[in-house]
Amino acid sequence: MPYMPPFIAPTRHTDPQAALDQVRAIYFQQIAHLRDAMQRFVAGEALPGHVRACYPFVRIHTDTGAQQDLLEKSGLSYGFVCSAGRYETTLTRPDLYGNYYLEQFRLLRLNHRVEIEVGTSSQPIPVHFSFAENDHIEGSLTPERRQLMRDLFDLPDLGAMDDGIANGALHARPGESHPLALFTAARVDYSLQRLRHYTGSAPDWTQNFVLFTNYQFYIDEFVRLGHEEMAKPDSDYIAFVEPGNVVTRRTGIAPEAGDSFGAVPPRLPQMPAYHLMRRDHGGITMVNIGVGPSNAKTITDHIAVLRPHAWMMLGHCAGLRSSQQLGDYVLAHAYVRED
Questions:
Q1: Distance of CA 110 to the CA centre of its chain
Q2: What does pTM read for this prediction?
Q3: Which architecture does CATH list for 11-195?
Q4: Measured in Å, how far apart are the chain's first and last C-alpha atoms?
Q5: Could you tell me if 252 and 231 are in contact, meaning their C-beta atoms sit under 8 angstroms apart?
């Protein structure tokens, strides 16, 4: 029998903030359960059963699609559903996505005048996705305990983390809910984990405007610019973060507790990221994606879950047109993917 935390029953909300507070309560209860069980497991305790915790869900029921006049007035392409039905999704990391979720809840209320239902889903949280930023558990376990861990905890299931929703390939069968988001919670958590690996920095640093490049000299100039901004007491940018979570705060801003964990890596990661941060996340993230379409696909797949406002590729002209000269800047404003 699964060893689970006390069940939190679904609740309905007309206040978007109350709905978000309930998402937080469920998520952090479930994460605390996993972390406590893992600490006991590492200490050598025998656990009472298969440890399980589940993501919170959000659900709405609507009898109509969004009113066209409201959509035209808002000018937004999100925060509504197109037709009547039941829509739901699982949610994760309200500490990272809190403002994003709150805006979505507010717009769903505005466009559909429906209650927002929040509850505990049946989708397990893989234990690896519950670890705190600087936790490294498996290295402290013997091979036998690592093998036992597979039997006692839910591990990531790649079959549940595809892009069927975002690709428009998922169609709800009769009686099933329609997707309320492009990415499920497990898919989001998977990408957040991979971003740490590929970019060498925590996804929390990523800003709303992203530049991709495959030339190191652009990165060198961005690093120089970032440190120049940090020397200006009146700069709109508050921090510059480099691979290894190495944080430079703007002059006059005191270091924060987590800054001390940062360390220059012995070698750069596959696609190093640099973050010039603003308080509202309206700064710039620059990623050196290296060479090859597979890298471009991989990094865009994973950064997409952070819902940036815009991304752009900064290239280097190879004289593709008669109007171009070798060395001209190239700003790619559109791209095509054939996956």
A1: 25
A2: 0.90
A3: 2-Layer Sandwich (3.30)
A4: 41
A5: no
